[in-house]
Write a structure and sequence with these properties.
single chain; 377 residues; mainly alpha; two-stranded antiparallel ribbon; 68% helix
């Protein structure tokens, strides 16, 4: 009697791709070197090495690098939604500012009686003849509550906005325009004095954080190392996401969303998750930015700031994670120099840079380096 044929013997075997490591050996070495430089070497060069030494790092250089690292977190967040998901947002400056305002409210409460009017209320409220704190300042006196608000406020705004936008299948240039309109409307709202956010002056003149003077070199270095560590951890988080099944679905949504939906995936959940996460990352960046720069006002919500975030990602190279970080350092480093040397031409340079990268370097600086390496090989 012949043996029944097994159908599984006729089916070709399918070799699933193995899960990529989080980082290669060289990648981990570079990541650890960056961590050592930011958390050990820079503090030594700034705090220990004498100011007259050629190896001393000035307070200005430390503050500039810290500010650019905050911007790099925003560029990394932009890469997750634009480079890997194909969603171009021109409103991420709003989430950056919301995180900054949440931290700024706490820092204003920390001033206490050291303000110009010697009142428990912030100076701008005394000037406007406010008698009590508005309701949205209720948790501003608690540092722990502030940390939650830094995450919850941008995340909740992004979640609500993203749900209705993605459910309505708004995409492409229409989505970009709506995000920019949302940011512009929020900026106009925060400019109004009656909203309780300081009007066009915003928040400034910070004194303390956790009852520790904020202007001391040691506190500024703590904030610097915290910013650097946060940037590196967010890079690892982004790498973990894009190398997982979740990240592969995001890239499939970017390339052919209709096919992904036909395959049985609910793209709404994937897009909403990465959109909310990117907003939270920008909120954290804003919270780290405010105590180091010393001011937050509605100009941080301007559409131009959100466009700059997209430029950083494009210059460095989309869908690379490391590219937007490099782009943030290149563009903002050039901006810091050009605004002093050639202040009237900075905006022209920025526009020419974006056009040039779009036309001649569609893969950004990282893509150019890869091409050069491939040519040499």
């Amino acid at each position: 009697m012949p043996k029944p044929e097994n159908n599984s013997d006729r089916m070709p075997s399918i070799q699933l791709p193995s899960k990529a490591p989080l980082l290669s050996a060289k990648g981990w070495a570079a990541w650890l070197c960056a961590l050592i430089v930011l958390c050990t070497l820079v503090p030594l060069l700034n705090l220990v090495i004498p100011a007259d030494s050629v190896f001393h790092m000035s307070d200005f250089a430390v503050a500039l690098i810290a500010k650019i690292m905050c911007y790099a977190i925003c560029a990394l967040a932009m890469d997750l939604i634009w480079g890997y998901t194909g969603i171009l947002s021109l409103g991420h400056g709003l989430f950056f500012a919301l995180g900054g305002y949440a931290m700024g409210m706490y820092l204003m409460r920390q001033i206490g009686l050291d303000g110009n009017y010697k009142s428990e209320l912030p100076d701008f409220m005394v000037f406007l003849d406010w008698k009590t704190l508005p309701w949205h300042w209720f948790f501003s006196g608690s540092f722990v509550a502030t940390l939650f608000l830094v995450v919850l406020v941008p995340g909740l705004v992004a979640l609500v906005f993203g749900y209705f936008a993605f459910r309505s299948r708004i995409k492409g240039v229409y989505f970009s325009i709506i995000t920019q309109a949302m940011t512009f409307a929020a900026m106009l709202l925060f400019f109004r004095n009656e909203t309780g956010f300081g009007g066009n002056n915003g928040f400034t003149d910070f004194k303390r954080i956790l009852n520790i003077p904020i202007a001391t070199p040691s506190m500024r270095m703590v904030l610097f190392t915290l910013t650097g560590a946060t940037l590196l951890l967010f890079f690892l988080l982004g790498r973990w996401l894009v190398t997982s099944k979740f990240g592969r679905v995001l890239q499939a949504v970017r390339d052919a969303e209709s096919r992904v939906m036909f395959s049985g995936y609910s793209t709404l959940g994937y897009k909403l998750t990465i959109w909310t996460l990117s907003a939270v990352m920008c909120g954290v960046a804003g919270a780290l930015y405010v105590p180091q720069v010393g001011i937050i006002n509605p100009s941080e919500m301007s559409p131009a700031n959100s466009i700059e975030i997209a430029i950083w990602a494009a210059v460095g190279g989309r869908a690379t994670l490391i590219g937007p970080i490099i782009g943030a350092f290149i563009v903002n480093g050039a901006k810091s120099w050009l605004t002093v040397a050639y202040p009237d031409f900075w905006l022209y340079f920025l526009g020419a840079l974006f056009i040039g990268v779009t036309l001649f370097l569609p893969d950004g600086v990282v893509g150019l380096v890869k091409k050069l390496k491939g040519t040499k090989a």
